[in-house]
Amino acid sequence: MNVKILLEYEGTCYSGWQRQKNALSIQEVLEKAIQSITKEKVRVIGSGRTDSGVHALGQVANFKTYTKIPIEKLPYAINSKLPEDITVKHAQIVPEDFHARFSAKSKVYSYSIYNAKFPSPLLRRYVYFFPLPLNLEEMRRAADILIGEHDFKSFMASNSSAKSTVRCIKRFEILKRGNLITLQIEANGFLYNMVRIIAGTLVDIGIGKTKAEDMISILNSKDRSSAGKTLPAQGLCLMKVIY
Amino acid sequence: MNVKILLEYEGTCYSGWQRQKNALSIQEVLEKAIQSITKEKVRVIGSGRTDSGVHALGQVANFKTYTKIPIEKLPYAINSKLPEDITVKHAQIVPEDFHARFSAKSKVYSYSIYNAKFPSPLLRRYVYFFPLPLNLEEMRRAADILIGEHDFKSFMASNSSAKSTVRCIKRFEILKRGNLITLQIEANGFLYNMVRIIAGTLVDIGIGKTKAEDMISILNSKDRSSAGKTLPAQGLCLMKVIY
């Protein structure tokens, strides 16, 4: 059977989702936990890679198994073999052709900025600390420009490649609660480092270094160097995968 | 001059606020940081001890100093010598007779319960994970019984002592946001483990093991063994000290 699982993890101690030779990945830890439960060789397919240090509240993955463990017991069984920074929150049987990556319609990422005079010890693992005042109205005006289908090449890491750099941002909200500013972006797909580069560009706009209108020319330039810097991984969190 | 500072810290890696011989305390780390800045021997007075593993969003402390560092620069200077799990968020000059502990009128503590089927990797350092359903209405009825001036001896760690075990709870709210249940208690003072024992008693009430009305007899018994168990430290956070 084909099993779809919902995952939450803190990325701080991992090299990211994807299996790597000399570093510990979420995928490897998860595969080993599932294998020790099912006694089968298991390959787990994630909805997408999260980078080193990136968190997930709602990562989705699937794997094929012949296990006889009842599906509702499976999360408990797998969790008993997982460290406390990774948890399976749900498991369900899905059709054989379900593929966590190819079947995904859209994903929601959040990027959190802690905007205060001093950094927060309690939030530090989950936010990017930025002490200068940010003009949220200007940031929202610029974010609105990115909504819709565009070539996001300017917002892709320059050392990366993709068949197509066209993506569709379905929703882009900038929320503020106390000192915490959260960018929430839903898109049909994301280029490598896309959210972190967009976040860096918006911070430049928030401090007035770049104008909100300049987002149009940055987008049109299709040139990574016209956008802002890539903000650090720990502010990024994969919130939800929509199928 | 007498300096009052506002502190945030993650208690995970410390033996608590108070200096100890063979363990690392917040007080010791803070005193060393201030001393390395002011080049004076400094004694920092906290509003109260927080236990091993307990966090603070708004701990207050004071210390006497002859430093010539301008007061508005002082947090930056001290923070430059502090690890990232402790931050000074504000400093101000106060009258010589201000005493972080004796001048405090009341304190606000929160106790956070993550009430879901599976634990949360992202929140795990700051919450007590409890998987069974909790009846919030019953918990709120029981909490209301505790509001006001009472002898809270039933809710004091049995290996501890206090001149008087009478305290006044000014406010007691139980909030729910998603899977997170937060008890917020403001009182003129707290006995040793008082919030954690009250929280444990309320969880017993939330699952129906104890009735809400029983809170009256538990309170009147003045007997630690009639109350619930002491919940773990990591759910507790000192939110605010009021002067």
From TrEMBL, chains A, B:
InterPro entries given in the database record: PsdUridine_synth_cat_dom_sf, PsdUridine_synth_TruA, PsdUridine_synth_TruA_a/b_dom, PsdUridine_synth_TruA_C, TruA/RsuA/RluB/E/F_N
Catalytic residues of the enzyme: D51
SUPFAM superfamilies: Pseudouridine synthase
Residues of the Pseudouridine synthase I TruA alpha/beta domain: 8-102, 142-243
GO molecular function: RNA binding; tRNA pseudouridine(38-40) synthase activity
Catalyses which reaction(s): uridine(38/39/40) in tRNA = pseudouridine(38/39/40) in tRNA
Subunit: Homodimer.
NCBIfam families linked to this entry: hisT_truA (TIGR00071)
Protein name: tRNA pseudouridine synthase A
Organism of origin: Tepidanaerobacter syntrophicus
